[in-house]
Design brief:
globular, eight-stranded mixed beta sheet, alpha/beta
Length: 485
């Protein structure tokens, strides 16, 4: 059965509020299949990840972008991909996705994937930086191990370094074609991200840890580092502290919840475990973005309804569940207000995942809205407004992103096909200022609406397992990077 089209949604330049960089080298079949899912292996012998919801969606939607018929066999698809080359494939997929803005988590293996600037250039859109909190804290801990600062300086160093990241650089986004000049390698970030779910789970101390408690936790951590432990933050007190630091700066705080790779204990990633912390964070006014959420998307929808500062997405699930994405999105919207759901792809490594995330999202939301129109639950005008809200407006409001100067190439082509008299409305870029509460902290960086960022290189390889940990030594190690999703 064909899916009814909502014209505004078809042509809307999306805002991908959470994604990663992509691999620009050629991939063999093993590496390609490993990058398709959150698994750390290419599948059991005799089976393939192409035989999955994701695999069938990839063959349907991505094959035509490479000049192949829909549902082309995997071998034909991979051969054509290799023939075109990684750069051409990336450009085709990204420009076909119709994404105007990419908020890129730059903390995962930044030496191996594209930066937000490169991603934006390939897409003809704009890139923005999201700072992963754990690598920043791990670098401060290494400075303590190597004797550059004392343990007692850890809290203030973390606050100062994050504030500096938020205030550094120029005033523009990392820009692709049509988005204005890039602002260099450093620019204000649009948010921060915690991967506490991977490290310790989400049952974190709710109240703001005092500096004395933080220093005691750091002293214990540094002792383990000096004894040769891996350079990997995994302490509930310190994860809680980092979230509070981001919130005190008024930055949107992204928190991984739900589905992830094999490092994750799924039962500890239920967003309901954050309830007390969400209640405690509410006076700061900082938005909290629950990422991914699946299979806890209904629980996340509840939290988004009852807490004014809580938002959610189902991005990672969208492309992994394929044709079931409409069901997942509808379930998330059972309780979540339409102004609280954001679009994301959580795309990583493969350019195909940006396209699939966008196509399946448009299809799922179109089916949801069209069913409501058919049943008389809302009007076509309401559906048009909600499409803009969920696809772009909510993210622009939360992150303070301006409208793009030009639409991405794919959305301009879609707009040209609209019937006469059909318009594509977009939500205004407006964000209410956050209020602050709690002990005095460094002054938050000024973030006028539309101010965005370039990113440091944000890269990760298809295989998501961490390398063998090296003991900390007196010699200053290389800057660490977190390998969790």
């Amino acid at each position: 059965m064909s899916v009814p089209r909502i014209e505004t949604l078809e042509s809307l330049p999306l805002v991908d509020h959470h994604c990663h960089g992509l691999v620009r080298r050629e991939l063999n079949r093993t590496d390609f299949e490993r990058a398709m899912t959150e698994a750390d292996h290419p599948g059991p012998r005799g089976a393939s990840f192409f035989d999955s919801q994701l695999g069938f969606a990839l063959r349907r939607y991505c094959a035509p972008v490479l000049d192949l018929p829909a549902h082309a066999p995997p071998d034909d698809y991979l051969a054509r991909r290799a023939e075109l080359g990684a750069d051409e494939v990336a450009t085709r997929m990204l420009r076909s996705a119709g994404i105007a803005d990419f908020c890129v988590d730059t903390g995962f293996a930044p030496e191996r994937l594209t930066s937000a600037a490169d991603l934006a250039a390939a897409a003809g859109g704009r890139g923005h930086d999201v700072v992963r909190l754990e690598p920043l804290a791990e670098q401060v801990a290494l400075d303590i191990v190597t004797g550059q600062i004392g343990v007692a300086h850890f809290p203030d160093q973390v606050r100062a370094r994050l504030a500096a990241r938020a205030a550094a650089g120029g005033a523009g986004a990392s820009a692709g074609a049509g988005a204005g000049p890039a602002s260099g390698d450093s620019a204000p970030v649009v948010g921060v991200k915690s991967v506490a779910a991977y490290r310790v789970g989400l049952e974190l101390p709710a109240e703001r840890p005092t500096d004395r408690v933080v220093i005691a936790a750091v002293r214990s951590w540094v002792g383990r580092l000096r004894a040769g432990a891996p350079i990997r933050l995994a302490d509930p007190v310190l994860h809680s502290f980092l979230i509070w630091v981001g919130a005190d700066l008024g930055l949107p705080v992204q928190i991984h919840t739900g589905y992830g790779d094999t490092d994750l204990h799924l039962r500890r990633a239920n967003p309901l475990l954050l309830t007390d912390m969400l209640r405690a964070l509410m006076p700061t006014g900082a938005p909290v973005l629950l990422l991914h959420c699946y299979p806890f998307h209904r629980e996340a929808g509840y939290l988004a309804q009852v807490f004014p500062h809580v938002y959610l997405d189902v991005g990672l699930a969208t492309h992994n569940v394929g044709r079931a994405s409409a069901t997942v999105l509808a379930e998330a919207l059972e309780l979540a207000p339409f102004g609280k759901l954001l679009f994301s792809t959580d795309a990583f490594a493969l350019a195909e995942l940006y396209l699939l995330g966008a196509r399946l999202f448009r299809r799922a939301l179109a089916a949801f809205l069209a069913a409501g129109i058919a049943d008389g639950d809302w009007t076509a005008e309401d559906a048009d407004r909600v499409a803009v809200m969920v696809g772009a407006g909510n993210a622009r409001r939360v992150y303070g992103l301006a409208e793009p100067a030009e639409e991405p190439a794919a959305t301009k082509r879609a707009a040209a096909k609209r019937p006469a008299g059909t318009t594509s409305r977009r939500a205004p870029a407006k964000r209410a200022p956050a209020t602050k509460a709690g002990p005095a902290k460094p002054a938050p960086a000024k973030r006028p609406a539309g101010r965005s960022s370039t990113s440091e290189p944000a890269k990760r390889e298809p295989a998501k397992k961490e390398p063998a940990a090296k003991p900390a030594t007196a010699r200053r190690p290389a800057k660490p990077s977190s390998n969790d999703g």
